[in-house]
Amino acid sequence: MATAADTPVATDPVTGPARSPRDIVPADLWEKQVGLLMRDYPYDSVMATRVLGQGYAYLLTAMSLRGQGLGLAPSKLVDIGAHTIILDTVAYAELCDKYNGGHFLHHVPKVEMKNDGSVIKTAHLVARAGWEVDPPLWEDAADCGPCHPGNDSH
């Protein structure tokens, strides 16, 4: 069984280290969303920053792979970051406009958790897309991923 420790941290010997969502998210929005995570969860600023960064990396990867029906799924912690981004609906709609070809990436959760390897596969795709991957935040890969499979939603 693959573990989060097997998840590569994306680097490229030509271009250097992996991309960081902080490079594309406006600083004021980033700080607001880190603050929301700290308000709603028992996170300090370091943990909130990690969770938010992985949430953005996940959503941006899903957007970049739109139309491929891959059934991507975040871990439970990464999902918290993604939800924080999605719930800020004006900023999320702008993110979708800019990075998802003007299409809204819908959130279609399912009640049942799936245990099909989709979370660890998603972490690998996030790395391949060039984003930083924080392996400990993907560790609950065995029992997560309740998102609608095989379509272009989260």
UniProtKB/TrEMBL annotation:
Residue ranges, annotated region (Disordered): 1-22
Biased composition (Low complexity): 1-15
Source species, domain of life: Bacteria
Stated name of the protein: Glycine-rich domain-containing protein
Gene source species: Streptomyces cremeus
